[in-house]
Amino acid sequence: MEAMEIGKAAAADKLTYEIFSILESKFLFGYGGAATPATMSSASRGGGGGNNSNNKVCVLSIDGGSRPEDGLLAAASLVRLEAALQRRAGSKAACLADFFDVAAGSGAGGVLAAMLFARGPCGGRPMYSADDALAFLLRRVRRRGWCSGSGGGNIFLRRRRAMAAFDKVFGETTLRDTVRPVLVPCYDLATRAPFLFSRADADNSPAYDFRLRDACAATCAGENGAAVEVASVDGATRLAAVGGSGVALGNPTAAAITHVLNNRREFPAAGGINNLLVISIGTGESRNTTPAIARIAAESASDMVDQAVAMAFGHNRTSNYVRIQGMVATQRRDGERRVACGGETTETAVWAAEAMLQQRNVEAVMFQGRRLTSETNAEKLERFAQELIREHSRRKQQQAPVVASHAGKLPSSTTTTKKQL
């Protein structure tokens, strides 16, 4: 009798989860479809609402602030992830774009996404490696910002120098010139609404094809309240942009998921939330130089997105969804205990990012709030690398593209084209 009651309770818990999963997917991510017993059963097996394929769309999402040091945790994480993929794939030429189908980044995270997925001049390979991207951020940290010089108190001079820095990295490359779809948010003061730079929109209309240098300037803009004027390649669309990191989408994970689930032309295999394999990388805890109210608002918004996404994945959140986040690290120097603020020196910034990779952060638990994870961030990256390799191997065996026109192969001898930054 007792066994029967336990069985009924387990069945009720399973049904509750299935209903919650479908409602979460429908209302959070906009994926429709009536909730029927068939779709609920499909969701519990990982079909996500009608697609029984085991293939998964691989999504990279990177948080960011307006300053270069806000992207250092993500850059250090991506260097470690790319090295793990190269080791497991047995190819030194393997890069992150070989394993991810779409990348979203806000602020400094948008700069990283654009660098890692911009198409280089040789053989359609990415223009930069993760090591290149980290080196670029460290140089910007050393120079106290995106500018090549301080610029004094002249905000227009600083803005022009920042644009020049992005121009040196990307040149005339546009959203359409990426090896995988890239999403970068900002906030348009002219329309008072968020704006998402998207390759899908650029492919659909020249009026939404922007140069990557402009998209990066837009998502990093807004320091001291200054907007950046950017225009599409054909001049038809103009924005008065401030950064996506502090205003629009500090954590772009939900935007990336929504984009994939509602873009069946580019992502035909994305039948539902559990057809996704997502890694979301935070900025670490905000630095002491950030005003308290702004820090609380930014961290709360990012944490809410993390909570909602984790709940949408439900029982698959530990395998299909990984969140990398850190707290401000402390170190001892000359007998003193001090906070590593990430902007003092490049050495301190690197130390802080590496220290956060060794930390354990909190994760959402189904119907139970949040708890400390059993893995460090570094261990999560290793586990996620294994999932990416498994997904890549599955695709090669099936010979069926998960993303339309974007199914790539690992290079055997070619190397990532490096450009002088």
TrEMBL record:
Q: Pfam families given for it?
A: Patatin
* PNPLA domain ranges (all copies): 60-257
Segments of skewed composition (Polar residues): 411-421
- Biological process (GO), any one: defense response
Q: SUPFAM superfamilies attached here?
A: FabD/lysophospholipase-like (SSF52151)
Instruction: Provide the alphabetized UniProt keywords.
Output: Hydrolase, Lipid degradation, Lipid metabolism, Plant defense
Xref: Gene3D superfamilies: Cytosolic phospholipase A2 catalytic domain
Q: Tell me the superkingdom of the source.
A: Eukaryota
Query: Which residue stretches belong to region Disordered?
Result: 390-421
Which CDD domains does this chain map to?
Pat17_PNPLA8_PNPLA9_like (cd07199)
GO MF term set: hydrolase activity
| Enzyme Commission number(s) | 3.1.1.-
Q: What is known of its domains?
A: The nitrogen atoms of the two glycine residues in the GGXR motif define the oxyanion hole, and stabilize the oxyanion that forms during the nucleophilic attack by the catalytic serine during substrate cleavage.
Q: Give the family this protein belongs to, as stated in its UniProt record.
A: Belongs to the patatin family.
The job of this chain, per UniProt, is described as: Possesses non-specific lipolytic acyl hydrolase (LAH) activity. Hydrolyzes phospholipids as well as galactolipids. May play a role in disease resistance.
Protein name (database record): Patatin
